[in-house]
Amino acid sequence: MKNPFAIVQTLMITERSMEMKDGNKYIFKVARDATKFDIRDAVESIYEVKVGSVNVMNRTGKKKRVGKSLGRRPNWKKAVVTLSDGSIDII
After folding, report:
1. 24 lies in a domain?
2. Total domain count, the chain
3. How does pLDDT run across 34-88, given as a tens digit for each residue?
4. 3-34 pLDDT, tens digit each
5. Is residue 90 part of a domain?
6. How many angstroms separate the CA atoms of 25 and 51, rounded?
7. Which positions ≥6 away from 61 have C-beta within 8 Å?
8. Cα separation of 70 and 2, whole Å?
9. Is position 91 within any domain?
10. CA distance 8 to 6
11. CATH number of the domain to which 45 belongs
């Protein structure tokens, strides 16, 4: 197994994710090459909880202008993790 901290990059704290916390769902920014099984194992080992399901979304980076040239932010992946047992303390 890869390093769990390389798979789960950050716990996303937004208005929507705080509302989903009541349903025992948490949103993570994860590595682009991570699978659902990798994410499940990493979250279970880092936070010591039991994961029920993992839903994954690939997000396309936004287009940004810098002067006359057109650039793009990198693509990224996010995971919605539903816990079956336990909870994650946020701040």
Report:
1. yes
2. 1
3. 999 999 999 999 999 999 999 999 999 999 998 999 999 999 999 999 999 888 8
4. 999 999 999 999 999 999 999 999 999 999 99
5. no
6. 10
7. 72, 73, 74, 75, 76
8. 35
9. no
10. 6
11. 3.30.70.330
